[in-house]
Specification:
Blueprint lengths: L5 E2 L12 H12 L10 E6 L4 H14 L5 E7 L8 E3 L4 E3 L4 E4 L1 H10 L4 E2 L2 H4 L8 H7 L4 E7 L4 H18 L3 E6 L4 E3 L1 H16 L3 H10 L7 H13 L6 E7 L1 H4 L5 E10 L3
Length: about 280
């Protein structure tokens, strides 16, 4: 594989440990903090992407509950502003301190076939952390992991819904299970009290699998949920794939760790089970 096709870590040593054994130990600690339950098959999930010190326990609670399939579609917001509005990487690999994770080229091609809005664009992913921080959790739970990463820089509902419908079509064609991971933190940089109120207003339509309701709530209530776009696309796809419920696995704010309640970020861990 050519070096040009490997996406190297952008936030190792900052958001999570750079040393492989330290990273594995930290991830395993977060995965083991939740009560032991049988892992379930899920269509999708929402997991936070802050530094592990703050949100790792919420991400761990999500991924510990899911039977992680070999293919994960990881949707994230575009925090950097670089690249195209709907940016996919369709070939190569992502390097983490644990190992390289290959991109599933056939599934990526199917997504592009069903959604003409997707652009091949590695620039949007180069410095973006929100896919990267999910990968060690997924790697620890699934040694044969392959991914397709998409960064979303649009705040318009229609392209997000169009992507969600395309994802459902590609997942249906794929035959094997696919987990749709929406990488998102919740409300940013308001007080703990305000953030909890705002976040639970957003969580309500998420649990109702109401993609449009989530979008409207985020816009109307001025909720600074960075990954509402990935969540809208995931919910749209999951509903089309037959989802009937969603579960809030864990909720927290950065104030729970830092003790600073004046300015926090919220973290919600949500699972959308596959239909039985």
């Amino acid at each position: 594989m050519s070096a040009a096709l490997v996406r190297h870590p952008a936030v190792a040593g900052r958001f999570y440990p750079r040393d492989p054994s330290d990273l594995r130990g930290e991830v395993d600690t977060y995965l083991s903090q939740s009560p032991k339950q049988k892992a379930i098959r899920a269509l999708g999930c929402i997991a936070p992407h802050a530094g592990y010190m703050y949100s790792g326990h919420v991400a761990g609670a999500v991924f510990a509950r899911i039977d992680i399939p070999e293919l994960c579609l990881v949707l994230c917001p575009n925090h950097t502003g670089m690249g195209r509005p709907l940016a996919i990487m369709s070939e190569g690999a992502w390097e983490t301190p644990l190992a390289e994770v290959s991109i599933e080229e056939k599934f990526a091609a199917a997504l592009k076939k069903h959604c003409s809005l997707l652009s091949e664009d590695s620039l949007a992913h180069r410095s973006e952390h929100a896919v990267e921080v999910e990968l060690p959790f997924l790697q620890e739970r699934q040694p044969k992991l392959k991914i397709v990463p998409i960064a979303l820089g649009t705040s318009q509902f229609e392209p997000l819904a169009q992507l969600g419908n395309a994802i459902a079509e590609a997942v249906t064609e794929h035959k094997e299970p696919v987990l749709i991971v929406a990488s998102s933190d919740m409300n940013h940089y308001e007080s703990d009290a305000v953030t909890r109120v705002k976040d639970h207003k957003a969580i309500e339509p998420i649990l109702a699998l109401d993609a449009r309701g989530l979008y409207d709530t985020v816009m109307n209530e001025q909720i600074s949920m960075c990954g509402f776009g990935p969540a809208v696309a995931m919910l749209t796809a999951a509903k089309k794939l037959g989802a009937t419920s969603a579960e809030l696995v864990k909720y927290a704010t950065s104030g729970d760790v830092s003790g600073d309640r004046d300015m926090v970020v919220g973290y919600a861990g949500v699972i959308v089970p596959a239909p039985r």
